[in-house]
Amino acid sequence: MKPPLPEAPYGYFKEFIAPGTDRFAFLKALLDKLDLRSSILTLSGNRHFMVFPSREERVSRGGTAPLVLVAHYDRAADSPGANDNSAAVFLLLETAIKLRQKKTADWMIIFTDKEELTRDEGIKSQGSYTLAVGLRQAGLGEGRFFIFDACGTGDTLIISTTADHLIKNEQGPGIIKTKQAVRRLRNLALETARELHLDKALLLPTPFSDDAGFLRAGIPAQTITVLPGSEAGPFISLLRNKPGLAQALINREAQKNYDPLLIPETWRCLNGPQDSRRRLTPEHFSQVVRFACALSKK
Predict the structure, then answer these.
(1) Vertex 64, ends 124 and 291: CA angle to 5°?
(2) Do you find a cis peptide bond into 19, omega within 30 degrees of 0?
(3) Which of 82, 120, 160, 204 has the fewest beta carbons under 10 Å from its own?
(4) Which of these, 68, 70, 22, lies nearest to 209 by C-alpha position?
């Protein structure tokens, strides 16, 4: 029998993933119930939630770029969206509660709209792209951005290397700076995992996420996800023999060259009816929350 979900805010999880739920209205009401200070930023028809510390704790620690934790709250049509990406939304809600309890300053959590794209849409249609453009124009593009996506199934923390593939062939005066910033974020994630003694933490390419939109708009971002160890280990071996498989995670044309069964089962279940609550592993939720909270100490 699956262990029950942890206590609040997870008591609202079942309703959040129910068919027909207005997830924007539900999340707005839930933020109020949890007494989390937030505002809504509407850009290009997409509605993003910005969650902040209380006013008295929002004092700069001096010279440190603010921590920005991101999770998209939209889901694919006809999918419960339990792992993609409801789990990460609730994990960051718990993170916000803990950061508030500890009176931590200089953080922001963003719940983004329109991460999921239709087959005919490109990266600039992603909500995170227009959001990142807006953040840069507002002078908020220098934060340390970490994307949490599909973090509800598994015991192995995956620190994504997909950004390397997204910017590999990019040219321009700012690309070197972007690559350096991505490397710093990745090193920060690795250092945090080591300090928490997370033995199961790996560098792996991961599926398309909000990091694509942020990067295209000029904001470096590091994606964090989770996989069962039984899937992560074999996938590493496959990548050694089939390095092009990494491109298949983010490129529909490249996917035609590979058997879908080569992709970890957890990721194959995303965006479809199999992405249900029964696939979640709530016994490992605390690991992700500990990791997210520890990033604020850097």
Answers:
(1) 75
(2) no
(3) 120
(4) 70
